Amino acid sequence: MQPKAKKNLLRISAHFGLLIASAFFLVPFLWMMSTSLKPVTQIFTYPPDFIPNPFQWSNYMEATEYIPFFTYLSNTTIITVFSTIGVIISCPLVAYSFAKLEWKGRNAMFIITIAVMMIPMQVTMIPLFLLFNKIGWVGTALPLIVPAFFGVPFSIFLMRQFFMGLPNTLRDAAKIDGASEFRIYWQIMLPLAKPAVLAIGLFQFMNVWTDFIGPLLYLTDESQYTLSLGLQQFQSQKGTEWGLMMAVSTMMTLPIIVLFFFMQRTFIQGITFSGIK
Amino acid sequence: MKIKGDSDQPLIQESMEVPIRKKSKISGSSATGWLFASPWVIGLILFYAFPLFSSIYFSFTTYSILSPGEFVGLGNYRQLMSDGLFWKSIYNTIYFAIFFVPLSIIIGVALAMMLNMRVKGMAVYRTIFFLPTLVPHVALAVLWMWLLNPGFGLVNGALDAIGITGPNWLGSVTWSKPSLILMSLWAIGQPVIIYLAGLGDIPQELYEAADVDGASWLQKIFTVTLPLLTPVIFFNLVMGAIGAFQQFTLPYTMTQGQGTPDNSLTFYVMYLYDNAFKYFKMGYASAMAWILFIVIMLLTAVIFLSSKRWVHYQGK
Questions:
Q1: Could you give the CA distance from residue B303 to residue B298 in angstroms, rounded to a whole number?
Q2: For chain B, which terminus, N or C, has the lower number of CB atoms within 10 Å?
Q3: Which residues contact B13 (CB under 8 A, 6 or more apart)?
């Protein structure tokens, strides 16, 4: 075969493989969107119809009235945004000290940090709940936000790997010019680590946006609920409001999809394990 | 993440370091380092160390939110040994982990390789593969309950079309766990992203060298890609195993906390959660949490020990 023809064949088979695999990931998702637009009578037809007939956009209106959608949306947004800010402030700072500063106990602390990733959340869950209960934070969003400002081990680890890959030359030059350690971090190193900051920010954003167990534990009053908890309210004794639930799920998912689509390249660049990117 | 204990070398695994890293004499004192790390040091004590140690204590008491409880020594642990649902939940959890973890690695690596090809429209493909990860777990649970509905679900509809009568999926004791594995595999975007990043770390020169040697596509995968991806596979294996043992949201929302049918979806952490926050048996639940922790530590230790045999670091 000619090299060019072979290349074309490869490209076509690559697309073919990707398309088939995509179907597995896309179809359930499209099904969710299509259901969100179906009238109740069409939801349970068999064999299933893929295309809503007619498109019932009013499901979306109805869904936002069935649960206090905008309240839940703003609760979710507040928790997600603040905890993401927390991670972005704390993790790079800590990771920088692991990667570039020399201090007594650093390696021991780093090993502990890795070990901490292995502690199941359920082990610390009960005492933490009791602690937050004692200081009166249960029933507020604070237990879901404040810990992020003290760092998340997975994100610290990812950031450290990225900083390890940045050369020391810039830092040394700034040092000779008499810049303080914090200034070097803030003005030189942190801007260079933007892809990694973006990656940990996005990880945190996604995890918190869809978190279920955290809000389930700490948010006691319905007026504080997040969308994840709100979704559950579509399931009741009387049955499930499928269409409405799918409408809210779609609304919850779309913003992150757009975010991911535009950031995926930088996002992936920001994750490094070898530290020699 | 291999951790070395040589005294003069930093305790971190060498290949994670920059090759040209030299000890700069002008670097700041220890105080600066601790200062930078201080948020995490405080966080570690407040949110990890303190709860970790208090949960040991609780596990020896009959503590509940309502009453301070009393010290019962190993009583909770003894009681667990004869708790049928405890063993059942262990069985369910191990069943899930044994199938899910290897499958997620094989499928995850394969997907990442596909998504690492240089073809047009990759951003779109990548977004598609990542879509399910972005769907909230509660919605994911409901979506799949319905896709797998034996009466009007899409899956059995499709199977019907090719002449297969689909099983009762989530309604059957035999198929409920495979159903859960299937839907969990659907949302493996996060490890795939990490594999993708790992693939990006593999130096292009190695492939060029393999090309010069006339290596085939398959040979390149097995001699270059996979060996150099092992540190990332290792990372995802550890995280995946830990995650599998902590399966909660999907089965919990799907069965509304019941673990139906016949407790075939009662997972370890669900039972733990029920004990702690439904029956308020915090001491009992803490004992469960500690058993889980010890199991995970042992498992991680085994994976770490085995990693010497199969994880290859670049530059070694």
A1: 9
A2: C
A3: B1, B2, B3, B4, B313
Please give the single-letter amino acid code of residue B31.
A
Residue B152 within a domain: yes
Residue B34's CB: how many other CB atoms inside 10 A?
17
Which residues touch B128 (CB under 8 Å, ≥6 apart)? A22, A25, A26
Compute the radius of gyration of chain A from its Cα atoms.
Answer: 24
- Where in the sequence is the domain holding B221, given as residue range(s)? 83-310
- Nearest CB to A165 within list B18, B27, B133: B18
Distance from the Cα of A221 to chain B's closest Cα (Å) equals 16
Overall residue count recorded for chain A in this entry: 277
Per the CB < 8 Å rule, is B201 touching A276?
yes
Q: What is the pLDDT along chain B (316 residues), one digit of tens a residue?
A: 334 333 343 434 444 444 444 444 444 568 889 999 999 999 999 999 999 999 999 999 998 877 778 899 899 999 999 999 999 999 999 999 999 999 999 999 999 999 988 888 888 888 888 888 888 888 888 888 888 888 777 888 888 888 888 888 888 888 999 999 998 998 888 889 889 888 988 888 888 999 899 888 889 999 889 998 998 898 889 889 988 998 888 898 888 888 888 889 999 999 999 999 899 999 999 999 999 989 988 988 898 899 888 888 765 4
C-alpha–C-alpha distance, residues A226 and A223, integer Å: 9
Q: Provide the shortest C-alpha distance from residue A227 to chain B (in Å).
A: 9
Which residues does chain B have within 8 Å of residue A244's beta carbon, measured at their own beta carbons?
none
Top residue of A35, A123, A130, A240 to mutate, by most chain B CBs within 10 Å, is A123
pTM as predicted: 0.83
Distance from the A88 Cα atom to the nearest Cα atom in chain B, whole angstroms: 12
Residue B314 to residue B316: CA distance in whole angstroms: 6
Nearest residue of B to residue A24 by CA position? B186
Model ipTM value: 0.85
Q: How far is it, in rounded angstroms, from Cα B81 to Cα B195?
A: 40
Nearest to A203, CA basis, from A28, A80, A73 = A80
Residue B210 · residue B202 · CB < 8 Å:
no
Q: Is residue B224 part of a domain?
A: yes
Q: Is residue B149 part of a domain?
A: yes
- Asked if residue B47 belongs to a domain, the reply is no
Q: Domain total for chain B?
A: 1
What is the CATH number for B200?
Answer: 1.10.3720.10
Q: What are phi and psi of A105, to 5 degrees?
A: 90, 0
CB B246 within 8 A of CB B175: no
Cα–Cα distance for residue pair B202/A111, rounded to 1 Å: 25
Cβ distance A150 to B40 less than 8 Å, yes or no, reads yes
Cβ <8 Å between A28 and B147: yes
Cis peptide before A127 (omega within 30 of 0): no
